[in-house]
Amino acid sequence: MKMKKTITTYNKLKVRLILNKNGKKVFMYPSIRKTQFFIKSKAKPYLKNDFIITIRVIYLDGSQNAGTYNKIEDLFWAFKAFIKEYLK
After folding, report:
1. Contact status, residue 77 vs residue 67, Cβ threshold 8 Å
2. How far apart are alpha carbons 6 and 19 in whole angstroms?
3. CA atoms within 13 A on the CB side of 51
């Protein structure tokens, strides 16, 4: 029987958000919950103001996954996919 993996304080993913507008980058290093809050409540105004948002997820084994998005739907989908990949 395979146990379902959950995210705890001991096995957290590292998430990096990069906000990019006209070549100027702002780096943010939020927790997973804060990233989820940012995407749900704050990302849309940034995207409307011509920002491009990059999510970079660093897994515990050192591998990483990243994507750059300019639509809120794609951003939601990507974040869910990154978390789902980790919880496999």
Report:
1. no
2. 28
3. 21
Residue 20 falls inside a structural domain: yes
Q: Tell me which residue has tokens 């379902």.
A: 4
Tell me the residue range of the domain where 55 lies.
Answer: 14-87
- Tokens for 44? 């849309």
46 φ, ψ to 5°? -65, -45
> What DSSP state is assigned to residue 70?
S
* 19, part of any domain: yes
Task: Count up the domains in the chain and report the number.
Answer: 1
- Does the reported pTM lie above 0.85? no
Distance in angstroms (rounded) separating the CA atoms of residues 65 and 85: 10
Q: What is the pLDDT, as a whole number, of residue 27?
A: 92
In a domain, 4, yes or no: no
The mean pLDDT values, 10 residues at a time, for the chain of 88 residues are 56 83 90 87 93 88 87 90 77
Asked whether residue 7 is domain-assigned, the answer is no
